[in-house]
Amino acid sequence: MNNLTALINTIEPIYQEVANQANDHLNQLTKPQGSLGKLEDIARQVAGITGEVMPTFDKKAVIVMAGDHGVCEEGISAFPAEVTPQMVLNFLYGGAAVNVLARHAGADVVCVDMGVNAELEHPNLVSRKVRKGTRNMAKEAALTLDETIQAIEAGALIVEDLVAKGYRLFATGEMGIGNTTASAAILCALTGMEASQTVGRGTGIDDTTWLHKQGVVNKALEVNALREPLNTSAEYALEVLSKVGGLEIAGLVGVILGAAKHRCPVVVDGFISSTAALVASRLAPLSASYMLASHLSQEQGHTKLLEAVGLAAMLQMDMRLGEGTGAVLVFNLIDAAGKIMKEMATFESAGVSRG
After folding, report:
1. Which of 66, 134, 327, 330 is within CB 3.0–4.6 Å of 142 for a Cys-Cys bond?
2. Where are the alpha helices (DSSP H) in the chain?
3. How far apart are CA 314 and CA 166, in angstroms?
4. What is the model's pLDDT at position 102?
5. Which residues form the active site (predicted)?
6. Which CATH code for domain 58-334?
7. Which residues contact 243 (CB under 8 A, 6 or more apart)?
């Protein structure tokens, strides 16, 4: 706990004066003020995060955390749990959607085993396995507090290692059959929303399984006595993450906190990554300023989830795959915003009259 507390205490506000300088530069460019919309928002935010008016992100990574969920015993997914290790190998061999989109964005995929219920070997696999999957949250706490903290700290250390190698821009990704169920439970516990409002179709379940999944979430909340939606303390957020979360979700909390510590932007993917963002924002409220929400997932409850963090999605693509696919798309927008800042003419340089 001491290491986690120290990590949280290192996170400082973004450089607002540098964000203001970026805004001043944007207003000198040959366009009506604000006419590039969210591209301008990105330029201001990344300037404030990094302390550079025109930062360059030569090395960027999507960190894909993987872990299994004991709650799969309850039959809440259209896919069996063995898909998790199979997909991890797919990531490692470069065949998944996130690999394709990362290559397009000039980014690297860093695949991390946080808690896969299998022994995996590959030279590019980062193994930080805390345990082989979580316990069944519908029967008991998914994780102990120590296991949760270990996973968070592991995520932060992965970012630290990558920063030392020159990476300055990160995205969150995940893989874990059953993790939409865990995410829905986290959202219920931290916001007071009902399971009927947070439980989505995940991997594409039918109506009967969807209703059953809602019941499983309610059972998990009851078994673990998590009904304090007005409790916004860091301690309660950590308790919720431990009791109904996942190792990959906890790892992503660490990734977000680690990125904030090192003043690096972190692009948050979809529904599952956003639950990690919510927990991170409860542990360290200043960390929210370092996050960029990528897309609005098809999973219901995502809009309310982002609102709870104080974020708004940039894209609405009807995506619900996870892996970091939506977040990696936003790498391209960040690059575009940077080019606007560096390459677009000013009114003075172009000899264009102001409106």
Report:
1. 134
2. 2-9, 16-28, 38-50, 83-92, 97-105, 145-164, 179-191, 195-198, 207-223, 234-244, 247-261, 271-283, 302-309, 325-343, 347-350
3. 26
4. 99
5. 323 (proton acceptor)
6. 3.40.50.10210
7. 137, 141, 142, 143, 220, 224, 226
Would the pTM of this model clear 0.85, i.e. be above it?
Answer: yes
Q: Over the stretch 302-312, which tens digit does the pLDDT of each residue have?
A: 999 999 999 99
What's the pLDDT tens digit per position in 250-284?
999 999 999 999 999 999 999 999 999 999 999 99
Catalytic annotation, residues = 323
- Quick one: which of 41, 11, 36, 62 has its CA closest to 311? 41
The one-character DSSP state at 54 is S
* CA 242 from centroid of its chain's CA atoms: 17
Q: Are 298 and 325 in contact (CB under 8 A)?
A: no
Question: Where does residue 73 rank: exposed (0-12), middle (13-18), buried (19+ CB within 10 A)?
Answer: middle
Upper half-sphere CA count for residue 110 (Cβ side, 13 Å): 24
48-97 tens-digit pLDDT: 999 999 999 999 999 999 999 999 999 999 899 999 999 999 999 999 99
Calculated CA dihedral for residues 5, 309, 166, 127, nearest 10 degrees: 70
pLDDT tens, 86-145?
Answer: 999 999 999 999 999 999 999 999 999 999 999 999 999 999 999 999 999 999 999 999
Cα–Cα separations (whole angstroms), residue 75 to 43, 205, 350: 44, 10, 63
164 backbone φψ class: left, alpha, beta (φ>0; ψ -120 to 50):
alpha
CA distance 171 to 174: 10
Q: What single letter denotes the amino acid at residue 196?
A: S
Q: What are the CA-CA distances from residue 242 to residues 5, 29, 239, 250 (Å)?
A: 16, 49, 5, 8
**222: which residues sit within 8 A by CB, 6+ positions away?**
none
| Domain positions in the chain | 58-334
Report, in angstroms and rounded to the nearest whole number, the Rg of the chain calculated over CA atoms: 20
How many angstroms separate the first and last alpha carbons of the chain? 56
Per-residue pLDDT, 110: 99
Asked if 119 contacts 220 with a C-beta cutoff of 8 angstroms, the reply is no
